[in-house]
Amino acid sequence: MLENFWFHVEYGINHVLDINAYDHVLFLIVLAVPYLFKDWKRVLLLVTMFTLGHTLSLILASYGVVSINASIVEFLIPITILIIALFNVFTAGKGAQKEKVGVLFLSTLFFGLIHGLGFAREFRILLGDSDSKLLLLFEFALGIEIAQVIIVFLVLFLGYLVQTIFRFSKRDWVMVISAIVVGLVIPMILNSDFLA
Questions:
Q1: 8 A C-beta contact, residue 160 and residue 62
Q2: d(Cα 47, Cα 31) in Å, to the nearest integer?
Q3: Three-class SS of residue 69?
Q4: CA–CA distance, 115 with 97 (Å, rounded to integer)
Q5: Per-block average pLDDT, block size 10, for the chain (196 residues)?
């Protein structure tokens, strides 16, 4: 039983940290880059909203409630990353991320839904004809959350180093990282099967 538990948690961790599917990591980078360590509660809440959205879409897909064309989802995933990255570029240094829980949290939940749909087919294969779908989903979601917290911690830690040791301004740090991500996701969008 415990062996199965760790297998699914590890599967969730590897899903996020998969170097061949780095879109998840890019999303987390642009989500966390505008924040500092003192904002950890807000960042954790954002990451959890994303996990909730991701898990909800996996539940809906697992029970056959939703089914969306894979090429549309694969196109929408880099679009969501591009939106957050551009939001960062245009609001860097303006404190837009400090606003009340609202647009950013709802959009993060929505983006989680989209990212979850992108993984739904593979997840259904993992489930097979398992009777304990919800337990498996919970274990997998726990793995995703652990991996996301690790990545977010690294982004915040790197931001701390760059801004304190190298005296980068917060605005420049956010602009540079977000611009790099924009540069990485544009080819993903242009090369997607949806546009082919």
A1: no
A2: 8
A3: coil
A4: 22
A5: 86 88 91 91 92 92 84 92 92 70 81 90 78 86 94 96 93 95 96 86
Answer yes or no: are the C-beta atoms of 118 and 74 closer than 8 Å. Answer: yes
Give SS3 for 87. Answer: helix
CA 86, 87, 88: angle at the middle one, nearest 5?
85
3-state DSSP assignment of residue 93: coil
Instruction: Report the residue count for the chain.
Output: 196
Residue position matching structure tokens 């990451």: 47
- How far is it, in rounded angstroms, from Cα 48 to Cα 114? 15
pTM: 0.91
Burial label for 97, CB within 10 Å (0-12, 13-18, 19+), is buried
